[in-house]
Write a structure and sequence with these properties.
Elements: E1 15-16, H1 20-24, E2 29-31, H2 32-37, H3 39-42, E3 46-56, E4 59-63, E5 71-74, E6 77-80, E7 82-86, E8 89-90, H4 101-108, H5 112-118, H6 124-129, E9 132-143, E10 175-184, H7 195-204, H8 237-250, E11 263-271, E12 274-279, E13 290-297, E14 300-308, H9 313-320, E15 331-339, H10 353-369, E16 375-379, E17 387-394, E18 397-405, E19 413-417, H11 424-433, E20 435-437
Parallel strand pairs: 1-8, 2-3, 7-10, 9-14
Antiparallel strand pairs: 3-4, 3-9, 4-7, 5-6, 9-10, 11-12, 11-15, 12-13, 13-14, 16-17, 16-20, 17-18, 18-19
Length: 439
């Protein structure tokens, strides 16, 4: 299913040559908005772009809110304020990133969202909406048509949908960066919760009787906790079941992150109703220097994010999760092995009274947001899903939207989003494979 996953860019990198000029000259370091506002200056140039990157159903892209409407004026037209990410493999795998991390962080600190994430105040709506996202620096060649032609949706005088010549769905993304190298730059907490603080907390954790992984570099001499404080099972069976349901759902999508794995090994971090599962396996379509983390909180799958392999996995989890929302101060870790072959296929919930009530409430929410909507068709859903994808027929044309979904939440649909680089035809096909008509 198309979705913007609050999680990191998973770049499947294929080959691009690096010239001597590229190696010797320090590239410009730009935010997404700076790159788009200077597109005529930077077109065809090798640059570094920093910002939040999302891995979606249709692939990765970088995004920044340049104007309140989430668009930017380029050549007299309003374009999505995003840059598509084209995946290419570096010619020199061990080559260092061309810009130091201090410079990258200095540029990222110009973005208010980066500072907010550093303070641990990431909006939960983002976690539900974005499946995999992170703050990254991408080194590569910026591409954009010299003459951009905007997307022309259907209207009363013209029923034809005319895509633009940009990138993504309907050619509505104005630029693409062809990757030479990428680097995760997770926010530091700048005095709110430092790495040193995290290390001290981790050193205080105690679980010597639990399995330990090669990625867990904590001391083996930690004292054992009192037996009475240790829950009966780790990971929590309910959280593990939700994780498996998330995997079953992702298998229905075109881009399934764990594709090709028959067995996975996870390091598990738990606190109250929060469970994070750090997947140790390298995934074949992703950057070698990151690993995926899936998150379950308050009895709902929350999507996920990535962690750099060089960082202690516990530190990474505690940087990303909303620890203030956890219902307990007691932390524990363990290891889990999941046989993917035993996970049943995803199925929609039975269309019983509860599902029909949720569907009716969802319809009213959509009607309130999309006033005048004539038809609403969503892909059939399970009440434990965390995404909804929909087709909307409006008086001025057809639209496709997604939102983060919670059957228990109010509203049910939050974090509305488009689908970046996904062709409209593939989104339509995906919805109509299992349609559920709301109106």
């Amino acid at each position: 299913m198309p979705k913007l996953f609050d999680a990191a860019v998973f770049l499947a990198l294929f080959c691009v040559p690096i010239t001597r000029a590229q190696e010797s000259a320090a590239p410009h370091v730009l935010t997404v908005c700076e790159a788009l506002r200077g597109i005529d200056l930077y077109r065809g140039k090798v640059v570094v772009i920093v910002g939040r990157s999302n891995y979606t159903f249709e692939g990765p892209f970088m995004h920044e809110r340049c104007d309140p409407d989430d668009r930017i004026l380029i050549q007299g037209h309003r374009w999505l304020s995003a840059i598509a990410v084209g995946a290419e493999k570096p010619a020199v795998p061990d080559q260092a990133f061309p810009v130091g991390e201090d410079i990258l962080r200095e540029k990222l600190r110009q973005l208010s969202d980066y500072h907010s994430d550093a303070q641990g105040s990431m909006v939960k709506e983002e976690v539900r909406t974005i499946a995999f996202a992170s703050w990254v620096a991408v080194y590569g060649t910026l591409e954009s048509p010299a003459k951009l032609k905007p997307h022309m949706p259907p209207n009363k005088s013209n029923s034809r949908n005319t895509p633009g010549n940009g990138y993504g769905a309907n050619g509505s993304v104005p630029a693409m960066i062809l990757v030479i190298r990428s680097k995760d730059v997770p926010p530091s907490s700048d005095g709110f919760r430092t790495i040193d603080n995290l290390r001290k907390e981790l050193a205080a954790e105690s679980q010597p009787a639990e399995p330990r992984s090669a990625t867990d570099n904590q001391s083996k001499s930690e004292p054992a906790p009192p037996a009475a404080s240790k829950p009966a099972s780790c990971p929590d069976p309910a959280a593990l079941d939700l994780f498996k349901r998330q995997i079953a759902y992702e298998r229905t999508e075109e881009t399934y992150p764990l594709k090709g794995l028959s067995v996975i090994h996870a390091d598990v971090w738990e606190r109250g109703t929060l469970t994070a599962l750090y997947i140790r396996e390298r995934l074949r379509d992703f950057v070698a220097t990151v690993r995926i983390v899936y998150s379950v909180e308050n009895h709902e799958a929350q999507g996920g994010y990535t962690c750099p392999v060089q960082q202690n996995w516990k530190e990474c989890v505690q940087q990303h999760e909303d620890l203030e929302a956890a219902s307990s101060d007691i932390r524990r870790t363990c290891a889990a092995t999941v046989d993917m072959r035993t996970i049943p296929a995803w199925r929609p919930s039975p269309n019983d009274q509860t599902k029909r009530r949720i569907a009716d409430e969802l319809r009213r929410e959509i009607e309130a947001k999309w006033q005048g909507v004539q038809q609403i068709v969503i892909r059939d859903f399970n009440l434990k899903d965390n995404q909804i994808t929909m087709y909307l027929k409006m008086p001025n044309g057809d639209y496709f939207q997604g939102c983060g979904f919670s059957a228990a939440g109010e509203p049910h649909c939050e974090g509305w989003h488009l689908f970046g680089q996904a062709p409209v035809s593939s989104i339509r096909k995906w919805i109509l494979e299992k349609p559920y008509r709301l109106k």
